[in-house]
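FAQ: What does the model actually see?

It sees only this:
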Amino acid sequence: MIVKNFTTVDYINLSPNSTIRETIAAFLHYRVDIGCITQNKKLVGIVHKHSIHRALLQDFSMNDSIQPLINESVITIHKEQHLTKAREVMIAGNVSQAVVLDDNGEIYGIMSKSDLVTSHMTALEDTLNRMRSLIENLQDAVISVDPNLKITTFNETALSLLGLNKNTLLGTTIDRVLPPFKKWLIETLKTGEIQEAKRIWYRELTVIASFIPIREFNQVSGAMVVLRDVTSYESIANELETTNRLKKILDSALELAYDGVVVTDNNGCITMSNHGFLDFFQIEKQTDILGLPITEVAPQIPSHHSIDLNKKIDGELININDKNCIVAQMPIHQNGQKLGAIFKIIFRQLDAWKDMLLHMEQLENEISYYRGELIRISKENDPFAHVISNNDAMEKFKQEAAIAAKSFSTILITGESGTGKELIAEGIHTASGREGAFIKVNCAAIPEELLESEFFGYVEGAFTGAKKGGKPGKFELAHNGTLFLDEIGDMPLALQVKLLRVLQEQEFERVGATKTTKVDVRIISATNKDLAALVKEGKFREDLFYRIHVIHLRIPSLRERLDDIPLLCKHFIKKINLKTNKELISVSPEVIQVFQNYQWPGNIRQLENVLERAYHFCQKTQIEVNHLPVELIEESKNESIMRPIEATNDEEGLQINRQHSINQTEKEVIIQALLQCEGNRTKAAKVLGVSRTTLYQKIKKYNIKEELNYKTASF
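And it is asked to produce this:
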C-alpha cells in the first residue's frame, strides 16, 4: 500500500507574495490547516493557519504578505513511498501533516494522520475478507459457537451439507439444531484443547468432526467444529472386516478430498494457503511462502496465461509437476474495491468436481458483480433512487434533502410514522459524500439505562459486565460520517444534556473514562412527534431543540401524495415477486381507486403490508378488491362519501368555486354535528354516518378548533 492511494490531492497552493487576506480565504474555502507555498511549481514552504492567527494578533494587516510567516522546514514524503515508511517519517518529524511530492519534486497532495488511519483500516478489512473467502471456498463445513453454545458463524458448505436454514441459524443454541455436536463443543470450551477426528452420525449423514477452541486475548471465547462428509464411505466400511481397514479407507478418503487453495494480494503476493496447496507443491511450512509472488511459488500457472488479478477464470486444465489439474481464479472485491485474488487447484477427483466448480464460480461472480453494480449505479446517479415517487411535492422534498445533504448543519426530519424517514436520512448521508459510516440509533428502542453507554461507549471495568477492552459508542463508530437519531422525541432529558454538549463541543468521554474523545459527526434526527409542544411541556430541552432544528425537512404523508399509489403498488409487487415463486402482474384499477379514497394513517409501511396480505390471498395474476381487508374497504367507502364530488365543468373558475362551496358545506355539517353531540366525536361520527377516524381527519383538514363545552366552533 503506497502513499498516493491515500493522499488528499485537493490542497491550497499559494505564492510567497500572497496576502494574509488571500490565505484566510483559501483556508475557509478548502477547510484545511496548512497551505503550500510554491514558486515555479516547486515547494518553497508551508504556512499554517495558526501562524496567520498569531500574525493578526501581532497587528499584521490583512493586506500584508505572508512571506514572514512561511515555514521552509517542511516534512515531505514521496507519493510512491510505502505507507509504513511515510508513517515513520511523520512520527520522526513530529508532524500531523506532510507534503507529498511526485517524481519531479512537485506537490502531489497532503498526507494527514486521518489518511494514515484510513489506510490501516483498509489493510485490516483486506485481511478479513481474504479469510472469509478462504473459509467459504473450503470443502469442509464450518460452524462456530460462543461460550453459551449459541451459533455465531457458519459457511455455505455447512448449510448445504446439514440442510440448515441460514435465516434462523444465528443466535440459536447448538443443541436445538445439531444436538450430536453439543458434547464435544462443551469439552472443547472446558479444556481449551482441540478434539480431533470424531465420527458423528447426524440424520442420514456420517461426518468426521474436529472441534477447535477459539481464543481471544489468551482466553477461550468460543469453539469451532469442522465437518467433512464421509457418508459415501460408510457403506464401504460396513463391508470391511477390521477396524484397521476402515481407518485406512477413511484416511485415504480425507486425503483425496483436499484441494489446493491460495490467496494473493493486489500485487500477486501470497497471503495465505491451505495444506492441500503446500502438499501439492512440496512446501514444508506456510511461512516459507508468505509474501512471495505466486509466479515464483507456482510458476506453472502463469505459463499458460499471464496472471491478471482482475480476471475471472472458471477453470483451465493445465499440467503442474506432471499432473493434470484444474486451476480456477476469482478476483476478490468488496464495495467495488479490488482486494486480491483466490486460486483453487483441483488435482484429485476431477471428474466429480469439475462441473460443480464451474457452476459455483459462475454464480459467485455474477452475484457479486451485479449486486455491486446495482448499489454503485443507484447511489452514484441518485442517492434518493430508493424513494419511489413522481409526486411534485415529494420531488421538491427530495431536492431540498439533496441541498441539505451538501451542508454541514444538523437536520431534523419530521413526518408521520411509516413515511420513510430512515430512507431519507440514508440518502442524505450518501449525497453528503462523508467518508465515515451511516450509524442508526432508535432512541425509543434502547433501554434508558443503556442509552449513555450505547451513545458514548465505555472503558474496561466501567461497570459490572463491561466487555474486556471496552466498547466504542455510536459517536465513535460514526466518526467522519453520519449519526441518525430516530425517534429523538423519546430521548430522556438526562441524556439530552450530554447530547447537547457533544453537538456543541464535538467531543465526549466514554463511560468510566478520564480522557476526552474528539469526533467529527453529522447529526440527522427524526421524529413523528411535535417537538415544539414537548418543549413547552418540559419533556424536551429547548436548547437541544434549536440545535437539531437548523434544517427542518418534513416528509409528506401518503394521503398528500395519492398520485404516487400506482407507482408504489408496482414497486412493492415487484419486490414481493422476488421473494416467492408466484408471479403477480398488477393491481386492478378498482383497487387503486379504493387506495386513493383511503387516508393511510400508517402511510407507506401500511400500504406495503396491505399489498403483501392481498398478495397471499390472490390466486390470479391481478389483485382485486375482494382480496383487500374488509375494514380498509369500509373505511374507503366512508371517505368517499365524505369527499366532495369533483366538478366536471370545463371552466376552471367555476370548478374551483363549486369545490369551495362543497367544502364549505361539508365543514358546516361537521361543526353542527359536533355542537349537537357536545364534542363527543364518537357520537358525531355516528350522526354523520362515517368512522371516527374519518371524522378526525376531516376536523384536521378543515382546521376546526374546539372551544369550551362546544358552544362555539371556528376554523
